[in-house]
Design a protein that fits this description.
265 residues, mainly alpha, 3 domains, two-stranded antiparallel sheet, 9 helices, 2 strands, 57% helix, 5% strand
């Protein structure tokens, strides 16, 4: 739901926290029906854009659930209310919570990287599947600005995998900020290297943690075919050898640059 209000002479759109049964069936309790959330989750595995679109849905669902919890706390000191996890478990059993949270984290990363205004739901900043302008019925910002925002999201997400997006987020966050802001200047080679180091560590930690979670908690490796297991063992052997080499270099105190020669970062 939204209402129009005047602010500094301009018309803006304010999203109101209303009871879910006023706009959706009682079992939905959010801006999106469970079937819509589940359907988008299944599309999300097709590419990063759909992952972010799914994450954007969760951000809005979570915002409404938080609003409901805040409303309940006024009458209930315990503050008990629905959580995103419990809502997904109850209404979207096909959605894996861990995977959903990774998609939500991607959406939050896009919000930060593209500077999506707080008053603009990320879902409005999502372009169509082919990158063209996804025109909404109404927008809290002028349509031309919304179009540019969608173009920025498309430029960031298009053609990237989830891992590449995480790498981009980490690199962006490693760039100088605050008093040392240098958005109009080129980074020094040292600053570029520091940013790449931070990004590389973030990507490797995130990726390996996901694999460990699959092995220890989900145990999805037990469902792999023999052919897949063989191929993965070969690939993991390559990764293991590479990490051992990196560890050896660190022990010897040699810098990364001296061992990569002409390899460009």
């Amino acid at each position: 739901m939204a209402k129009k209000a005047k602010a500094t002479g301009k018309e803006i759109i304010i999203r109101e926290c209303v009871k879910a049964d006023a706009v959706l069936p009682p079992e939905a309790a959010t801006p999106y029906a469970p079937d819509a959330v589940t359907a988008q989750y299944k599309r999300a595995v097709a590419g990063a854009l759909e992952m972010v679109r799914f994450g954007a849905m969760l951000l809005e669902v979570e915002a409404v659930l938080t609003c409901e919890k805040t409303s309940l706390s006024r009458n209930d000191p315990s503050g008990e209310g629905p959580s995103l996890m419990s809502w997904l478990e109850q209404h979207c059993p096909d959605v894996n919570y861990k995977t959903a949270m990774r998609f939500k984290a991607l959406a939050e990363g896009v919000q930060r990287s593209c500077n999506v205004p707080a008053k603009v739901p990320l879902s409005l900043a999502m372009p169509k599947d082919d990158g063209t302008f996804n025109i909404p019925d109404e927008s809290p910002i002028p349509f031309q600005k919304l179009k540019r925002l969608q173009q920025e999201v498309w430029a960031l997400v298009e053609g990237k995998s989830a891992r590449q997006l995480q790498f981009a987020f980490a690199a962006a966050e490693a760039a100088p900020k605050g008093g040392d802001r240098r958005s109009d200047k080129k980074l020094t080679e040292e600053e570029k290297h520091e940013a790449m180091v931070k990004a590389a560590n973030a990507v490797w930690n995130t990726g390996v943690e996901a694999l460990v979670d699959n092995v220890k908690r989900i145990k999805s490796h037990m469902m792999l075919t023999g052919d897949t297991v063989g191929k993965l063992l070969t690939k993991l052997g390559i990764v293991t050898d590479a990490l051992k080499e990196a560890a050896s270099i660190k022990e010897q105190g040699d810098s990364y640059e001296t061992r990569t020669d002409s390899v460009e970062l």
